[in-house]
Design a protein that fits this description.
- This protein has 53 residues and is of the alpha+beta class.
- It has a single domain, classed as Alpha-Beta Plaits.
- Helix content is 19%, strand content 17%.
- Strands 1-3-2 form a three-stranded antiparallel β-sheet, with no helix packed on it.
- The radius of gyration is 10 Å and the shape is globular.
- The chain starts with a strand and ends in a 9-residue tail after the last helix.
Length: 53
């Protein structure tokens, strides 16, 4: 699991993830076992905080 730092909690990335790999509570977390690295979340993050390598 990876935690996205400095997230403002808009939830856009969670809404667009086709595999449910992102969750949001106090911070956004990515569940690596579900992530297919489609990078949709990167494109919707208004602050550019998500980087898929």
């Amino acid at each position: 699991m990876m935690e996205i730092k400095d997230c403002y909690g808009c939830g856009g990335c969670v809404a667009v993830c086709p595999h449910g790999a992102l969750t949001i509570d106090d911070v956004v977390e990515r569940m690596d076992e579900k992530c297919i690295k489609c990078r949709i979340c990167e494109h919707v993050c208004p602050n550019g905080l998500i980087k898929i390598e």
